[in-house]
């Protein structure tokens, strides 16, 4: 580039010749140069401004167009970067402890109508009434020809019905997908599962919600898509549950009982292996809730969890165990059993007179109310209350069902001395069979508290200590003797060393005023095997009568015990327990260790 | 030198543009495939679910019990009772001796043998 000189020699010489000031030439040239520089800089700045403006314009246009597009378009799920599994969005299954299905989902269809699209409403109404006999043809026709633009016809239909409706060929009859909760085993474990129904409903889908039992308790878990369809594993064993229900139903009809319940619980983990309440229902088709009368007569009523009863003599072992734990008695201590024991205006009697005194063991074996009441007197109200609280008898159970809080034990308003004495043999305090199962498990597993649970557990519960281990062993020993030579002699099952305690409690009258003479709750609380306890089984029959003899027999020893024994005979092999039969000749191989 | 750089830069821009274009379409294709696969997996899940439900329904304890009773003549199935457990000493041991073979038959996999000793 050739620079224009500020003082060109030719012009300077010329100016000198003419007598002009050469500095003017320099000034002139400087001015020209500055002007050129200024023009160039302005041009550049203007260009930059233009580019900047264009950039801003483009940026704002992009944002504006994007915003407009987002606002005016249908929302769409981002499929490229979705976390987790987008497919399994339905309600989780419920399975038993071995993975067998207790509740699952089935794709069905719902049927709805758009009457304005119908060509021949009369024909459609007639055909629909033909396919679904419970529909009223005239009502349908009135709906189809009225002002309605939309109506549900059926909430769920089977594939055969779908095809039949499809064959009607009416453009106004439409189907929507519908998920249905299915309980493939029918009434088995009905009370535990509860049932499901529809929540908010739309044409394209409907919300399945649990209405009772674990379905309701774990509703949020079952609906949580984050589980990716992982099933809810219960502690129930389907085979054992089915066998228990069969045995209990048979026992209930033989003993002419109006209701029955059983709870089988693992003594260390607190897992409920089977829990039956009869009469039961089919959760696929839940009966309506009773609007009049006693709710406990409804098949929906779960006797094992919701039913609180005075369970009778099965409580005696708690009194004796506490007395042994406090070192007040030992199994051989002799206790005065002369009756009747009079306390104020109350008289405590035994079923028959057992003589002037019995050992503590024999009080349990023969089930003496008088002896137990005397021992309870030694313990006192406060300590008894505290002990029963530590076994969970003063609060509702914590089992994972919505019904659990309704099974709240009924306690005496004033825990007086007479209450202490009656509670010691199971009267004056009402609790559910599940409470009793948890209480027996806590007492007999070595003496640590067990909370009942319906979820499969892999570890043994380590609860608070309730009684010393030695007391637990002695209690088991006493219960074993009840079966060997006491009131529960029908409870012997060869090879399983059953131990247990019977309880026969008169039913209180509904309107107050004492007890019925001919209505009892018969309970057998058992543990097996007694020398290495693994399971606790509670069987309770409501108003049983055994009428094979000359006069009707209602005591638990004649009613609940044979049913429980049959149940153990059926269920123990299913639990993989081998009967220990004493062999006459020793087996050839003897295992030894140093 | 500078010119070469410009040319390379321009070529790089063209190349990257082409690559981005291709990647864009590949991604869209992959998303489309995924959607299709998801639909297929969903349908398969549904089928499996129905089969599982049907399996559970057919294996419900009530039905199995009825079937066992109906076919008692042929199968002789009874509920599992405590006497079903055997004992180790009930197993016959040692196994009874095999009777001497009186009519041996030559069997091999390469056809009938000839009389020559293979060794």
TrEMBL record, chain A:
Main location class: membrane
Record flagged with keyword Transport: no
Localization, UniProt: Membrane
Gene Ontology terms: biological process: cell division; cell wall organization
Domain Penicillin-binding protein dimerisation: start-end pairs: 88-223
Gene Ontology molecular functions: carboxypeptidase activity; penicillin binding
Stored InterPro entries: Beta-lactam/transpept (IPR050515), Beta-lactam/transpept-like (IPR012338), PBP_dimer (IPR005311), PBP_dimer_sf (IPR036138), PCN-bd_Tpept (IPR001460)
Keyword set includes Acyltransferase: no
Domain Penicillin-binding protein transpeptidase: 261-547
Keywords: Carboxypeptidase, Cell cycle, Cell division, Hydrolase, Membrane, Protease, Transmembrane, Transmembrane helix
Entry GO terms, CC: plasma membrane
Record-annotated membrane-spanning stretches: 49-69
Record-given protein name: Cell division protein FtsI (Penicillin-binding protein 3)
Organism: Cognatiyoonia sediminum
Automatic annotation (TrEMBL), chain B:
Highest taxon listed in the record's lineage: Bacteria
UniProt protein name: Cell division protein FtsL
């Amino acid at each position: 580039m050739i620079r224009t000189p500020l003082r060109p020699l030719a012009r300077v010489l010329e100016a000198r010749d003419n007598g002009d000031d050469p500095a003017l030439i320099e000034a002139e040239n400087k001015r020209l140069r500055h002007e050129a520089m200024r023009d160039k800089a302005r041009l550049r700045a203007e260009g930059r401004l233009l580019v900047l403006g264009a950039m801003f314009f483009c940026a704002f246009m992009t944002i504006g167009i994007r915003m407009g597009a987002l606002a005016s378009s249908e929302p769409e799920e981002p499929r490229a970067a979705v976390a987790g599994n987008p497919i399994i969005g339905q309600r989780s299954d419920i399975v038993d402890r071995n993975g067998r299905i207790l509740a699952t989902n089935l794709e069905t269809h719902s049927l709805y109508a758009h009457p304005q699209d119908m060509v021949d409403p009369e024909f459609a109404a007639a055909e629909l009434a033909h396919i679904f006999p419970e529909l009223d043809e005239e009502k349908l026709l009135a709906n189809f020809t009225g002002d309605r633009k939309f109506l549900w016809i059926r909430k769920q239909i089977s594939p055969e019905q779908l095809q039949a409706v499809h064959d009607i060929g009416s453009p106004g009859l439409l189907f929507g997908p519908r998920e249905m909760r299915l309980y493939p085993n029918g009434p088995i474990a009905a009370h535990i599962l509860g049932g499901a129904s529809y929540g908010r409903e739309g044409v394209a889908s409907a919300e399945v919600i649990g209405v009772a039992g674990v379905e309701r308790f774990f509703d949020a878990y079952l609906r949580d898509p984050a589980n990716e369809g992982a099933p809810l594993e219960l502690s129930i064993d389907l085979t054992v549950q089915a066998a228990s229900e069969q045995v209990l139903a048979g026992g209930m009809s033989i003993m002419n009982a109006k209701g029955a319940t059983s709870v089988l619980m693992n003594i260390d983990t607190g897992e409920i292996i089977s829990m039956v309440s009869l009469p039961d229902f089919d959760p696929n088709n839940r009966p309506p809730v009773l609007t009049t009368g006693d709710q406990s007569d409804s098949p929906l009523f779960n006797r094992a969890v919701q039913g609180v009863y005075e369970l009778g003599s099965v409580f005696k072992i708690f009194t004796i165990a506490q007395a042994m734990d406090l070192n007040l008695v030992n199994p051989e201590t002799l206790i005065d059993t002369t009756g009747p024991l009079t306390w104020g205006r109350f008289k405590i009697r035994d079923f028959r007179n057992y003589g002037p005194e019995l050992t503590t063991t024999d009080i349990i074996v023969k089930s003496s109310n008088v002896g137990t009441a005397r021992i309870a007197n030694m313990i006192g109200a406060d300590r008894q209350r505290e002990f029963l609280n530590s076994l969970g008898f003063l609060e509702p159970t914590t089992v994972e069902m919505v019904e659990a809080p309704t099974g709240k034990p009924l306690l005496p308003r004033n825990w007086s001395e007479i209450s202490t004495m009656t509670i010691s043999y199971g009267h004056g305090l009402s609790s559910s069979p599940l409470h009793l199962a948890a209480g027996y498990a806590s007492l007999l597993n070595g003496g640590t508290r067990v909370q009942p649970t319906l979820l499969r557990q892999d570890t043994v519960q380590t609860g608070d200590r309730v009684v010393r281990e030695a007391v637990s062993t002695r209690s088991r020993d006493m219960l074993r003797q009840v079966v060997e030579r006491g009131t529960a002699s029908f409870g012997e099952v060869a090879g399983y060393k059953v131990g247990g305690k019977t309880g026969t409690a008169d039913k209180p009258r509904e309107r107050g005023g004492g007890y019925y003479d001919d209505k009892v709750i018969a309970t057998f609380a058992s543990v097996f095997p007694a020398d290495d306890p693994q399971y606790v089984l509670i069987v309770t029959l409501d108003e049983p009568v055994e009428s094979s003899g000359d006069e009707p027999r209602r005591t638990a020893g004649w009613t609940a015990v044979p049913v429980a024994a049959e149940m153990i005979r059926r269920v123990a092999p299913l639990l993989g327990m081998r009967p220990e039969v004493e062999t006459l000749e020793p087996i050839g191989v003897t295992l030894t260790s140093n | 030198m500078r010119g070469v750089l410009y040319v390379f830069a321009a070529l790089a821009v063209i190349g990257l543009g082409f690559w981005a274009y291709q990647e864009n379409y590949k991604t869209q294709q992959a998303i489309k495939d995924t959607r299709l696969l998801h639909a297929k997996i969903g349908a398969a899940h549904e089928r499996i679910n129905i089969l599982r439900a049907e399996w559970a329904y057919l294996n419900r304890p009530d039905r199995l019990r009825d079937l066992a009773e109906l076919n008692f003549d042929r199968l002789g199935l009874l509920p599992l009772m405590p006497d079903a457990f055997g004992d180790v000493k009930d197993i016959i041991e040692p196994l009874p001796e095999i009777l001497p073979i009186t009519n041996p038959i030559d069997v091999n996999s390469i056809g009938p043998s000839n009389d020559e000793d293979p060794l």
